[in-house]
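PROTEIN DATA CARD
Card holder: ABC transporter ATP-binding protein
Chain length: 422
Origin: Candidatus Desulfolinea nitratireducens
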Amino acid sequence: MTIAVHVENLGKRYKIGTAPQSRGNYNTLRDTIANTFSRQKRLEAKKPDNIIWAVKDISFDVEQGQVLGIIGHNGAGKSTLLKLLSRVVEPTEGMMQLRGRVGSLLEVGTGFHPELTGRENLYLNGAILGMHRAEIDRKFDEIVAFSEVEKFIDTPVKRYSSGMYLRLAFAVAAHLEPEILVVDEVLAVGDAEFQRKCIGKMNDVAEAGRTVLFVSHNMSAVLRLTDESIVLEKGKMIMRAPSAEAVDYYLSAGHARAGEKIWDEADIPVTAAPFSPRAIRIVDNRGNVVETIRSTEEFTLEFEYQLDQPITGLRIGIYLYSARGEPVFTSFDTDDPKMFNTHTERKAGQYISRCVIPPDMLNTGRYTLGVNASSYRIRRYFAEERTLEFNVDPAGAPGMHWSEPRIGTIRPRLDWKIEKVD
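Structure generated from the sequence above:
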């Protein structure tokens, strides 16, 4: 296969905390001498505290026609990497080779002028993105139809809603036809229906055999559009793997993996007082704290906490999500009216709220647990969306005698009956 993108030891370094001197300002002789000595001292100290590597030592190849996902938390270096590949900024070190015309969707709407009409901005933005006028003429009707702003195409865009503005901007960018397309988080525009339309368009681009580098925090889009992804962390590439594996790693990175999380005092916000979380843990039916439970066995979620003062109406909640962020269920320790009436006020002291998850409920996979401590419509004391993660082993679950995977986050053992009626 032909290599469309070759990156070798690529790095980009920035200085922070120093502003460039204006050309209109001139140093005195005393300033120049002082700056010279100061610069010499910094070199001798060899402590580049004002230097940050946004991207460091990144190497990878992308084959022609491949769609590669790039994922990572905020500040991981994703956008910097795409700017380097788009030649928006120059690298500090390393090299890159790109074979073919490069189109970049780094920021939707770049180049739009509020005083110009939608029609005029379509031509202006298309030119900025590298399209020739003849190409824009040929695709004009298709772009406008995709944007769904036909009635307002001759209206100045300063009168557009933010949704209309973004629809037209994405429509222009989405109709580029480069050999290499660099996309940075542009699918989160418009309403849900338009987002689905955008993802469908990106899927068409991928199926057309173009090389695509795709950055997004939408893991469903990454899984749908890409077969392989790289994971960035603090400017370095720490993994390249099939997208499902890379996404699971990204979603679980930085979270507890041993079946228990214990909060330090420094991790508890002062606004949580008088509530203080102490620990949360996964306990199997033998009383062991575990990270992996069997689908066919019940297990217990324990949330330990401290109250420094009495709290009226307190409820402790858990939120269960699949590894890819889909909600599975929410439950509170006072959902039962009897529990609500019994625990109207919780006095100062140490507590454990326990919740038993029945057997034959969860499907195989990795799950994320969030917690919440609040008084309904009065105050939220503490909340953490991604607190603990655990695995579910499907051994012995319904249907395991077939090797096919079961769709969904639950795998219930339902009571079926088969009756012959003639």
